[in-house]
Design goal:
Blueprint (H helix, E strand, L loop, with lengths): L5 E5 L9 H9 L4 E8 L1 H4 L4 H17 L5 E4 L2 H11 L4 E4 L5 H12 L3 E4 L22 H11 L11 E2 L24 H13 L5 H4 L12 H5 L5 H5 L6 H22 L22 H8 L5 H13 L4 H14 L4 H11 L5 H12 L14 H8 L4 H6 L32 H15 L1
Parallel strand pairs: 1-2, 2-3, 2-6, 4-5
Helix pairs in contact: 4-5, 6-11, 11-16, 13-14, 14-16, 15-16
The structure holds flavin-adenine dinucleotide.
Length: about 450
């Protein structure tokens, strides 16, 4: 214990419950005094879209409320902000949860280069990236063996809620970001919202998760991704009540995909932007142009693709099945490199996470670790008919097609032209582009 209060720097752990790093800070501060701090880093907010920023603003408000209005919110470069704070409180140490992603690690290295010590406890994962290894000490590149080793490795149970003597902020330390996003339903962000959502999922959809998780028209998944991204709930808390039933087991595996991709990115940090399988960088791709714009705006003429892209802009979220379909469409129907799509996703997704996003894209593009083979090309119409059989998901996001009943909504071109109310005709012919894609694949084999 020092004779100064502890400084706790919140980053991807915006919660008081099951936050081991915060408990370590409390133990360390004289009379359990802790200065809770969030830094609005210009690098974090520049380039982020409204849903994402709106989510962060709401999450910070929720955190502040649980801290009794004592969250210090300061805008600026972390290195500069922290050096002023530690000077004012006559300390050289700052408590944090470890950050393993390339941006976070570089930022932390920069802070430490200024002479400040970061005391790291825990991580945003059940098992920190880099810990699950094969017997020969190397890392896993394939999910199933990773999952088995990860599950066997096990993890600690959740810890309790943090209570401390929070240091009161001054007026100048209350620079809450003013990102307004009317599209965000009130109280979706924050620790309380996260635990309530998880409880609802445990009481309801989890038992049929294995059957419904691919259906964007049903509330079959947890929708915890943004809560996990911002650390409003820790994966250990989520894993703790799971049993060995089918729904629970499949759900645990999805949590493990998040851990797997964090592990892969930790070992291959350049794969946030570069091809994990470098031969795919030599493939012929098209420059993003008007077709890319149509994809971004949700006017490709393929209803499932357009519904997903419109949901992304409207809500900052998209169902996993639809993420796969829109990603496949961009790469294999429009022949545009995955990085363009990944950047667009990161701008809008409220759960935007470098590891899951880049590797989710690389999985679809066939160039990632344990990826879907490139020749597996999603047919956007068949995917729609199979996973949104009555067309409810499409109708929700495409008002122009709301008058079309049932699954027919996935093929509006089969109806009389004026029945589609101005909805565009397909910008490409899927069967032609599929052949084109396979031809380009053959060139690099
Ligand atoms: C192209 C593409 C981009 C993606 N980008 C992101 C991203 O930026 N951030 C993100 O959190 N997820 C991303 N995913 C994974 C997945 O789509 C979302 O995690 C999921 O849709 C979130 O919904 P949910 O919380 O209801 O998931 P659930 O089905 O309830 O799953 C529970 C949790 O497991 C994790 N998870 C589930 N599926 C995956 C997966 N395939 N990969 C990694 N973690 C997973 C998430 O943390 C999720 O919240 C991406 C997938 C694809 C195909």
């Amino acid at each position: 214990m020092t004779d100064a209060p502890s400084i706790f720097w919140f980053r991807r752990d915006l919660r008081l419950t099951d936050n081991p790093a915060l408990l370590a800070a409390i133990d360390d501060g004289v009379s359990s005094q802790v200065l809770p701090l969030f830094i609005v880093d210009p690098n974090l907010v520049s380039g982020a879209g409204l849903p994402r920023l709106g989510y962060l603003a709401q999450s910070l408000r929720a955190l502040d409320e649980s801290l009794g209005g004592n969250l210090h919110v300061i805008a600026g470069e972390p290195r500069k902000v922290l050096s002023q704070i530690v000077k004012a409180y006559d300390t050289t140490e700052v408590h944090v949860t470890g950050d393993f992603a390339p941006f976070g690690s570089a930022r932390d290295a920069d802070v430490e280069a200024s002479g400040l010590k970061l005391i790291r406890t825990g991580s945003p994962y059940a098992i920190s990236p880099g810990r699950v290894r094969k017997n020969d000490g190397t890392n896993y590149r394939v999910f199933t063996p990773f999952y088995n080793a990860w599950f066997q490795h096990s993890w600690r149970g959740p810890v309790g809620v943090a209570e401390a003597n929070w240091i009161k902020p001054t007026k100048s330390e209350r620079h809450f970001p003013k990102f307004i996003d009317d599209r965000l339903t009130p109280n979706v962000a924050g620790e309380l919202a996260a635990s309530q959502r998880f409880q609802r999922f445990l009481d309801g959809s989890i038992d049929r998760y294995h059957e419904h998780r691919d259906r964007p028209d049903l509330p079959g998944t947890s929708r915890l991704s943004a809560n996990l991204r911002w650390g409003e709930i820790h994966p250990r808390t989520v894993l703790a009540p799971l049993n060995s039933s089918q729904g629970h087991t499949v759900f645990r595996k999805e949590i493990a995909w998040r851990e797997f991709y964090a592990d892969v990115l930790h070992h291959y940090p350049l794969t946030s932007r570069e091809y994990y399988k470098p031969q795919f960088a030599t493939m012929r791709y098209d420059e993003p142009g008007p077709k890319f714009d149509a994809w971004r705006s949700g006017v490709t003429g393929y209803p499932l693709v357009d519904a997903g892209m419109r949901q992304l802009i409207a809500e900052g979220w998209m169902h996993n099945r639809v993420r796969m379909v829109v990603a496949s469409f961009l790469i294999k129907d429009l022949h545009i490199e995955w990085q363009f799509g990944a950047r667009h996703f990161m701008k809008y997704l409220i759960d935007g996470d470098m590891a899951s996003n880049s590797h989710g894209w690389q999985w679809v593009a066939g160039c990632g670790t344990d990826a879907s083979p490139y020749y597996r090309i999603f047919n956007p119409v068949e995917q729609g008919k199979r996973f949104d059989p009555d067309g409810d998901y499409v109708r929700k996001y495409i008002p122009e097609l709301r008058h079309i009943k049932g699954g027919a909504v996935h093929e509006p071109w089969l109806l009389a032209h004026d029945a589609t109310s101005g909805y565009p005709t397909p910008i490409v012919d899927h069967s032609v582009e599929r052949r084109e894609s396979l031809g380009r694949l053959a060139e690099i084999k």
